[in-house]
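Teaching note: in complex prediction, the entire set of molecules is handled at once rather than each chain in isolation. The prompt given to students was simply: 'Predict the structure of this complex.' The entities are:
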Amino acid sequence: MGNITGIGAAILRKEDKRFITGRGNYVADVKLPGMTYAVFIRSPHAHARLLGIDASAALDMPGVVAVLTGADLKADGVGGIPCGWGITGKDGLPMKEPPHPAMAHGKVRHVGDAVALVVAESVDLARLAADAVVVEYDVLPAVVGVIDALMPGAPAVFEDIPDNLCCDWEIGDRAATDAAFASAAHVAKINLVNNRLIGNPMEPRAAVAQYESSTGRTTLWSTSQFPHVVKLLMGNFVLGIPQHKLRVIAPDVGGGFGVKQFHYAEEAVITWAARRLDVPVKWVSERSEGFVSDAQGRDHVTEAEMALDETGKFLGLRVSTVANMGGYLSTFGPNIPTNLYGPLLAGVYTTPAIYCEVKVVFTNTVPVDAYRGAGRPEATFVLERLVDVAAAQLGMDRVAIRRHNMIPTAAYPYQTPVMMEYDSGDPTGCLDRALALSDWDGFAARRAEAATRGRYRGIGLATYVEACGLAPSRIAGRLGARGGLYESATVRVHATGDVTVLIGTHCHGQGHETTFAQIVSEKLGIPADKIEVVFGDTDKVQFGMGTYGSRSLSVGGSALAKSVDKVILKGRKIAAHLLEAGEPDIEFADGKFSVAGTDRSLKFEEICLAAYIPHNYPLEVLEPGLEEQSFYDPVNFTFPGGAHVAEVEIEADTGTVHLLSYVAVDDIGTVINPMIVAGQLHGGIVQGAGQALCETAVYDDSSGQLLSGSFMDYAMPRADIMPNMKIVTHSTRCTHNDLGVKGCGEVGTIGSPATVMSAVVDALSPLGITHVDMPASPNRIWRAIKAARVAQAAE
Amino acid sequence: MELTLTVNGRKVAVDVPTDMLLVDLLRERLGLTGTHVGCDTSQCGACVVHADGVSVKSCTMLAVAAQGSQVTSIEGISGAGGRNSLHPMQQAFHENHGLQCGFCTPGMIMSSIDFANRNAAPTEAEVRHWLEGNMCRCTGYQNIVASILAGTAAMHATGSVEAA
Ligand code: FES
Ligand code: FES
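The expected output is the structure of the full assembly:
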């Protein structure tokens, strides 16, 4: 009998009610007695020496509690913000790791760099006082673009790193790749830019801190995807607060997408201020402030080339990328364009030789770190654009060239030349279904029809592989991780058989309260509404690495499954005692422990009661109670993959791109809740389509001002960006975790930029256009069409 | 300034500065934190409430402009059919997975109710066009559109539509 709230059931979300009734509890909603309000004063300059800060007028204003600066931080011995990854260069030397003060002293390095904190009795007073603080700057030349930053004589973001080079990193076999190129019949090349993005979760970041001098305990509420990691990094490396005296709470959080998975300076400064001033302090970012202080994403400039034999077989891939780190190293910054990029360049193809080098560069821009997909959309974009270019060059069909090079399903597990061993997958199966669902073969008629309306119609596809649940810790440590990459879960079974799960992942929209309950429901045979999932509070939950990199289900869910298995194991021992049978004879199914081959059984609830009221209980060999914990460190990444198809029409006269259809076929392993999976795909695909069609962060090259600094200038995808998508899962099980799960949080964003751009370029291909950079804004497309027509006319 | 208005059916008299925004009155003075602030350029729609039955961005309206008005926020729309009952639009968001992190949701629901009051049988394209002033970063909008279509039908079927 199927469990109606178990694995695979599309049950409605347990967490919805508080959100649809306005009873969510976000950090901005936290109100404490005696609370004060803080605003940051931020640099209006991209690069400047800080000459002085005069707060005297502000301090005279009524209701102003304090004005604190980087010098105060220094005087209090507050440490810099640590980087969580230390990568190693080609030369075997560690990356350059300059200090990252929580508020600037000496120099500011990007527009938005915090220079002072104003604390007052209300937000309005704090804002007024901030206007009265005089900050004197000596403005320096700034550098914004990665290519400019590497030019001789470019302004140095850090004086002791005159070439702005953080690290020159590589992966793969250079000699083997060069040899492949030497013997190639064809070489296809592409130069491209992966445009910088601003994540913009709808909830702005916020922090509230409170210090209780009577107990010496400090509490921080933060909009964080990983409260335990913030507790460890901030407590231990920045503020020197002992771990048992520090509590970090990340309550309801309004979207993350990576933007909230870093330890931010503001968290530390607000906590430090609350302790120093002995009053609760609250800071809520304004949106325009978030634009210049939330870590940003992408920003690569890449040259790539593919060597092919005469049949179109890929022989070698060579990629050279320059990646922007911004003005400081954010928590995962250096890891994203290296470890999460190079190893993904094999994609789903059998390319035998791959070499990738990445120069990681400082500039006077907001720090760059992980944003949904993080490295993997960039890798997919390079590879899939290059495959399209190669197909065009060889006169091959885009589908045929992919099929010709795909890893055969029977070849899994598959070792790529760039570190990864894919455990399972079915790329051709995904491709076949995506082509069928999108009526790929019927496209010619649709293109011809569109042409009669004066529109260019194009169809595009991309395949991808992604790596989720970065692991195991041993390997991650070798790659430069300074933390573990396991997850922990506790299953607390109450005397009544109800269950509380305490888990170290963090949910900010993904529906974990439902998904994790379904795993427990499936295994214990109890309904999901008897299971509560608790996360986001370091005083309640043992430990955890939080939620990012699509790791929650594959790593956290696996820890949870292990804990439930331990509960069942102990339950069997109790049942064996109560049923007077041998433990091997006890079976557990449908919520009942029974003696095999008999009708003697006990309900799960009866076992729970016996565990807590152990009157008839094997106390000499078994402890009472029923609560189990697991820390799970995976043996490998998980590798979701898939094939996406998009169709567009372009207005020849305006360059406007209309995204008309989108089909996604994804292999994400076991599906726990198909409704939630579809929702993750929808959101991810639109975020990727946003990059392809409208989103882009633009800095002024000379001043370093962020020109796209609000929703007026940064084009967020709206509801009319595309019609309904078709989402299909085509799963193979992950072979190295018990649930067979892979992860689905990022796949949409990884597949969609390459897919949409393949369609855009296909639409323009009659004009001889082979590539356009993102976003395919009307202006850029109109110019491309115009230039192509001029070129065609000249022929 | 002395301000009297009705909020979620209750008469409220408060003394507010003339430059106070309606959203701050609701969130900071009245503790109605279901109304959210997601931007500072009046574009995201997280702050949408109703003033006299019509959706407004409470981040862009002065509290004193609501003098004598009936203001309804997300906290004030459920319960018509009994203590735990949801408004048909809330129910539709739940049943169609029209929310993920929930941050845009109160504004989306308040905006959608106004839309449903004006449109008996809207098309998908009309819904997408209406949502121009409401951003969601999580859902990709697909299930929000489905929720609004279902919620609109339910409102009209159950007679919970209000003439604007
Ligand atoms: S807060 Fe964004 S529109 Fe009101
Ligand atoms: S549900 Fe998160 S912003 Fe809409």
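Point out the following to students. Chain A has 20 helices and 28 strands. The first strand of chain A starts at residue 36 and ends at 42.
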